[in-house]
């Protein structure tokens, strides 16, 4: 029932979406490393958390990043892309204590900690944060470091959300470039797969084999003959109104598809592959029953 060319076309399209998605993801990761997107996003997030709109005058984030424990988390002249919340809490309290009390935070008494916080500038966002976390209980001084680390954890979740949105924008832009560069029009690809029985069988076979793997990256060892994929510019494009309109629609469908990411299509590939393989089971049971009769 499900062993139909339409299913094979779907498998071929999904396979190509996975290939293009992996290419886009690889380029996006390369760009993230080249332009230090993660570390810059983290720096902007920490600055926003600690200094707020008065970042230029408060400078807690700058002093935190200048501390050897933070600076040594990354290579020379680069910013760290991840800082553990407990370390952030410890370094921040140490820098504030050294600046205002001239000694380590661990050496301060409860009264000195409260005086240190109360003595911070009224417009300093960190002052309000520390006062809120400290509270009125004497035990607040002892747990301030841990409470501040928990507050950093909550803040870092928002920072991670910022980076996720930035990464999606980068991925979308890269998807546009890759789609146009490979002329990956969904409409054109589907038509070629539908018309070419050999290509359709090849892509469906490769897709089924890939669906048996545990992760999309296994594709690199599955597809050795990349030249058989229905991608690329032939030089014989019509360039008339009809072709341009159809190609733009096909590109838009491809861009939207590969922007969903390889894991999405890899999961769908397994479902479609199982749907295809379920077509032969009823016939097999029928033959068995005939032989028994």
Give a topology summary:
Blueprint (H helix, E strand, L loop, with lengths): L4 H30 L2 H15 L3 H4 L1 H7 L1 H4 L13 H17 L8 H9 L6 H10 L4 H44 L3 H10 L1 H15 L7 H4 L18 H18 L3 H16 L3 H12 L1
Give a brief rundown of this model.
The protein is an all-alpha fold. It has 15 helices and no strands.
Describe the protein.
With 293 residues, this protein is mainly α. 73% of the residues lie in helices and 0% in strands. It has 15 helices and no strands. It has helices at 5-34, 37-51, 55-58, 60-66, 68-71, 85-101, 110-118, 125-134, 139-182, 186-195, 197-211, 219-222, 241-258, 262-277, 281-292. α1 (5-34) crosses α9. The longest helix has 44 residues, at 139-182. The protein is elongated, with a radius of gyration of 29 Å. The relative contact order is 0.15. The model is unreliable at 280-293 (pLDDT under 50).
Biggest sheet record:
none
Radius of gyration: 29 Å
Mean pLDDT: 84
Order of helices and strands: HHHHHHHHHHHHHHH
Structural class: mainly alpha
Give the overall shape, derived from the CA principal axes: elongated
Give the terminus-to-terminus CA distance.
24 Å
Please report the total strand number as a whole number: 0
Number of helices: 15
Q: Any low-confidence stretches, pLDDT <50, length ≥5? A: 280-293
Helix content: over 70%
Fraction in beta strands: under 5%
């Amino acid at each position: 029932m499900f062993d139909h060319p339409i299913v094979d076309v779907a498998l071929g399209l999904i396979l190509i979406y996975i290939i293009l998605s992996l290419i886009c993801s690889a380029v996006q990761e390369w760009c993230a490393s080249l332009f230090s997107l993660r570390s810059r996003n983290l720096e902007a997030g920490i600055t926003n958390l600690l200094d707020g709109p008065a970042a230029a005058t408060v400078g807690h984030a700058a002093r935190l990043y200048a501390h050897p424990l933070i600076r040594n988390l990354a290579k020379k002249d680069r910013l760290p892309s991840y800082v553990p919340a407990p370390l952030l809490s410890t370094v921040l309290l140490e820098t504030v204590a050294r600046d205002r009390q001239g000694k380590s935070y661990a050496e301060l008494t409860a009264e000195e900690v409260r005086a240190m916080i109360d003595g911070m500038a009224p417009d300093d966002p960190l002052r309000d944060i520390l006062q809120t976390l400290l509270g009125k209980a004497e035990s607040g001084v002892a747990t301030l470091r841990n409470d501040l680390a928990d507050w950093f954890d909550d803040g870092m979740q928002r920072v991670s959300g910022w980076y996720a949105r930035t990464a999606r924008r980068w991925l979308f832009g890269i998807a546009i470039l890759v789609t146009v560069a490979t002329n990956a029009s969904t409409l054109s690809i589907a038509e070629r797969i539908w018309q070419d029985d050999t290509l359709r069988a090849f892509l469906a076979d490769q897709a089924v084999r890939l669906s048996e793997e545990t992760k999309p990256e296994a594709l690199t060892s599955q597809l050795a003959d990349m030249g058989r994929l229905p991608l690329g510019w032939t030089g014989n494009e019509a360039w008339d109104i009809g072709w341009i309109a159809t190609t733009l629609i096909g590109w838009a469908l491809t861009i939207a598809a590969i922007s969903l990411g390889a894991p999405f299509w890899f999961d769908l590939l397994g479902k479609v592959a199982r749907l295809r393989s379920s077509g032969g089971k009823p016939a097999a049971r029928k033959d068995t029953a005939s032989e028994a009769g």
